[in-house]
């Protein structure tokens, strides 16, 4: 076992100071992903900064929407009255993730920071550009049933990583136009959720756009008109405790049978939560019919690319989108 320092802090300022002084230090919250990675020697931090004593677990209404503290537990968020009433897509996505035991421990910030579950990333005997840049991607030409079909190309049009982001919660947050509040040595800044995670490009080892030492403080959700017509559909190998083959977060604002606005995102298909902005624009002003949703699915699949064993996602993804839209349109 690798030795490491353990430090417990009680203020955000102390937390930021504790990690910025070290080259290889990480924040520890629920630890549901980080501890597994440490046990497998995928990650070997020299220092863990325990942030569980920070006052960042509140869920509160704001003048413009809802603020969720970074240390709020996934279960608490999913079951909160304000979330279930005004942001049901988030509640549904959270309840689709992991198991009740893990949701009781996992935090919102930790959920955002979790790493891919690609088998090659977890196996230190195999090549993985995400774990060891320049070593190659074992999934390309290997076992890639769970892997990405969108956003895999780098600057030279090659694919250096085809792993997918594993979170369900993040699919709902990107669809609902969330914003992330972070704090660092240079002060606070706000990051649109759509920009928080990143595609692999030429640096697949980087999962997000956080700077060294920045601490996630909260997630802000703006008020929205989608509460009556939202649905999260997750297709997976078993009914619980399984990652998505394909998932879709769909939210519609309907006037009669006409779509006024739509918010859509996919999971299980990309290195980051995959927002379908072009599809949202296509749906605006269209009737909420199966014919419209099938046309929207065609728009959604532009640029999709399979890698062999995951070619079935080229059919599953549009079908899942159609089903999610149909259910969202019916929900009330």
What does this protein structure show overall?
The model has no long low-confidence stretch (mean pLDDT 97). It contains 13 helices and 12 strands. Among the domains are: 5-52, 2-Layer Sandwich (Uridine Diphospho-n-acetylenolpyruvylglucosamine Reductase, domain 2), CATH 3.30.43; 230-330, 2-Layer Sandwich (Enolase-like, domain 1), CATH 3.30.390.50. The chain has a 5-stranded antiparallel beta sheet. The protein has helices at residues 12-20, 34-39, 74-79, 81-86, 88-95, 100-105, 108-113, 119-122, 169-175, 193-196, 277-283, 290-300, 313-330, and strands at 5-8, 25-28, 47-50, 59-61, 65-69, 179-184, 187-192, 215-222, 230-235, 246-255, 258-267, 274-275. The longest helix has 18 residues, at 313-330. It is of the alpha+beta class and 332 residues long. Helix content is 30%, strand content 20%. The relative contact order is 0.13.
Q: How do the strands and helices of this protein lay out in sequence?
A:
Blueprint: E1 5-8, H1 12-20, E2 25-28, H2 34-39, E3 47-50, E4 59-61, E5 65-69, H3 74-79, H4 81-86, H5 88-95, H6 100-105, H7 108-113, H8 119-122, H9 169-175, E6 179-184, E7 187-192, H10 193-196, E8 215-222, E9 230-235, E10 246-255, E11 258-267, E12 274-275, H11 277-283, H12 290-300, H13 313-330
Parallel strand pairs: 1-3, 2-3
Antiparallel strand pairs: 4-5, 5-8, 6-7, 6-8, 9-10, 10-11, 11-12
């Amino acid at each position: 076992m690798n030795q490491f320092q353990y430090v417990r802090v009680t203020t955000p300022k102390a937390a930021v100071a504790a990690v910025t002084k070290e080259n290889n230090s990480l924040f520890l919250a629920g630890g549901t992903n980080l501890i597994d990675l440490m046990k497998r020697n995928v990650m070997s931090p020299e220092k863990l900064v325990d942030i569980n004593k920070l006052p960042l677990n509140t869920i509160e209404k704001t003048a413009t929407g809802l603020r969720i503290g970074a240390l709020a537990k996934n279960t608490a968020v999913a079951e909160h009255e304000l979330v279930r009433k005004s942001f049901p897509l988030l509640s549904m996505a959270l309840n689709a993730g992991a198991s009740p035991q893990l949701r009781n421990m996992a935090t919102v910030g930790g959920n955002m920071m979790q790493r891919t579950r690609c088998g090659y990333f977890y196996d230190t005997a195999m090549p993985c550009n995400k774990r060891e840049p320049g070593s190659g991607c074992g999934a390309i030409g290997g076992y890639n049933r769970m892997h990405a079909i969108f956003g895999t190309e780098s600057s030279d049009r090659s694919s250096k990583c085809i792993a997918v982001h594993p979170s369900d919660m993040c699919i709902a947050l990107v669809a609902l136009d969330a914003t992330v509040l972070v704090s660092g040595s240079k002060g606070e800044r706000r990051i649109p959720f759509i920009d928080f995670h990143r595609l692999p490009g030429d640096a697949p080892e980087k999962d997000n756009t956080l700077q060294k030492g920045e601490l996630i403080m909260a997630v802000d959700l703006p008020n929205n008109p989608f509460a009556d017509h939202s649905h999260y559909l997750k297709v997976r190998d078993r009914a619980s405790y399984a990652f998505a083959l394909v998932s879709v977060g769909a939210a519609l604002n309907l006037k009669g049978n006409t779509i006024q606005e739509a918010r859509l995102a996919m999971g299980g298909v990309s290195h980051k939560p995959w927002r379908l902005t072009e599809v949202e624009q296509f749906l605006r002003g269209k009737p909420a019919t199966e014919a419209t949703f099938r046309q929207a699915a065609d728009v959604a699949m532009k640029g999709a690319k399979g890698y062999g064993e995951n070619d079935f996602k080229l059919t599953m993804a549009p079908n899942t989108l159609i089903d999610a839209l149909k259910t969202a349109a019916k929900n009330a």
